[in-house]
Design goal:
Layout lengths: L9 E6 L2 E6 L1 E2 L5 E2 L2 H34 L7 H21 L1 E3 H8 L3 H13 L4 E3 L2 E3 L10 H6 L2 H12 L7 E4 L3 H12 L6 E5 L2 H7 L5 E4 L4 E3 L4 E3 L4 H4 L4 E7 L2 E3 L3 E4 L2 H13 E7 L11 E4 L6 E4 L5 H9 L3 E5 L18 E3 L3
Parallel strand pairs: 8-9, 8-13, 9-10, 13-16, 16-18, 18-19
Antiparallel strand pairs: 1-2, 3-4, 5-7, 6-7, 11-12, 14-15, 15-17, 19-20
């Protein structure tokens, strides 16, 4: 836009918010002569600024697209495919080299370290690698079972819900047993969150569980003797039989590496299965704690046949046909409702239990 006027002996020109002054000569008849060269120079700055603005907008758009491809804003099916392809590439890199650092993966795939860490969590949940400090490691297939801290991260949400539902089945004054499984550990946290225990006795071969419950008001912890397995942070061996032969356990809550109708509850190692058999034999009732990934799988050693089960606590993705088969055998099947409850927020009333009978 051009404004003319007698301002300090010149012509005032305004373009894009900037002012410039072009001096002129005044002729007696008020005719004004303007320097065409100056005007052309000023006008030429307009498309340049517009091009700069367009380039900046284009850069912002490209950055947004790149951010979506990196997995930070994956909202469309197309962008989700990119994330999945990236995760497949990460799995191949770890498999080929045995390990990979987060920083190296981020640089190689041109994404942020936050995105890489999210991808590693997904791949670990799928059992394709093992997360470690600062990176990931290839799974050691020669080991019969994963370390406790690795298994604890798998199906964490399902285990929390199962643990909460199982804790609601415990009555004050009982003597119960918990094995050393990660699901039983989740249950122990929910037991601890319940206040006003008068007298609850918990027998466990799990070191993490014993440490979690030890010293809590109203809860007495007992452990069998034996040898410590670092993979499961558990106590195993025949030495524990001396204690288990002398105690009365109302309910035994048992996790498992696998469960089928034919083989029952099974574990990855015979060492762990031996101590679990002793616990099952000492219990009046046996409650299985198994998420949907354990159904239809038979691990190395069976420790509890199906006809010995009293109840099963599982999540909503459990196979309906297998659950129905258990109900036909008069075995209760509880499904942990999909409620987001942490131990600190659990209800104190059994009527608000997150477990419900499965009616499939």
């Amino acid at each position: 836009m051009l404004h003319s006027g007698r301002r300090a002996g010149g012509l005032i020109y305004r373009s894009g918010g900037a002012y410039a002054v072009t001096f002129f000569q005044q002729i007696p008849d008020a005719t004004v002569s303007i320097s065409l060269l100056t005007v052309r120079l000023l006008l030429s700055t307009v498309p340049i600024r517009n091009r700069l603005r367009g380039s900046s907008a284009q850069s912002d758009a490209e950055a947004s697209i790149a951010e979506g491809e990196s997995g930070l804003m994956e909202t469309s099916d197309h962008q989700t495919v990119f994330a999945r392809e990236r995760q497949q590439q990460i799995a191949r890199i770890v498999e080929e080299h045995g390990r990979a650092r987060v920083a190296d993966l981020a640089e190689r795939l041109d994404v942020s370290t936050v995105t890489i860490r999210k991808d590693l969590r997904v791949l670990e949940t799928e059992g394709r690698l093992e997360r470690a400090h600062g990176g990931a490691l290839v799974l050691d297939r020669s080991r019969p079972e994963r370390a406790f801290e690795v298994r604890e991260r798998l199906q964490r949400a399902e285990k929390e819900r199962i643990g909460a539902a199982a804790a609601d089945l415990v009555v004050d004054g009982e003597s119960i047993a918990l094995d050393a499984s990660t699901t039983a550990f989740a249950m122990a946290r929910h037991l601890k969150a319940r206040s006003r225990w008068v007298h609850l006795t918990v027998l466990t071969n799990g070191l993490r569980i014993a440490s979690e419950l030890a010293g809590h008001p109203g809860i007495t912890v007992a452990m069998p003797g034996g040898f410590v397995r670092w993979e499961a942070l558990s106590v195993v061996g025949p030495l524990g039989g001396g204690l288990l032969e002398k105690v009365n356990i109302q309910k035994a809550f048992m996790g498992a590496a696998g469960y089928t109708l034919e083989t029952g509850l099974s574990d990855a190692t015979d060492e762990e299965a031996q101590i679990k058999r002793l616990i099952v034999d000492a219990a009046s009732e046996v409650v299985a704690l198994i998420d949907h990934t354990k159904w239809g799988r038979a691990a190395f050693a069976t420790f509890c046949p199906t006809d010995r089960l009293t109840a099963v606590v599982t999540d909503e993705e459990a196979p309906a046909e297998m659950a129905e088969a258990l109900r036909q055998r008069l075995i209760l099947v509880h499904v942990a409702a999909g409620l987001d409850r942490t131990p600190a927020r659990r209800s104190r009333r059994a009527s608000e239990s997150v477990a419900r009978d499965m009616t499939l």
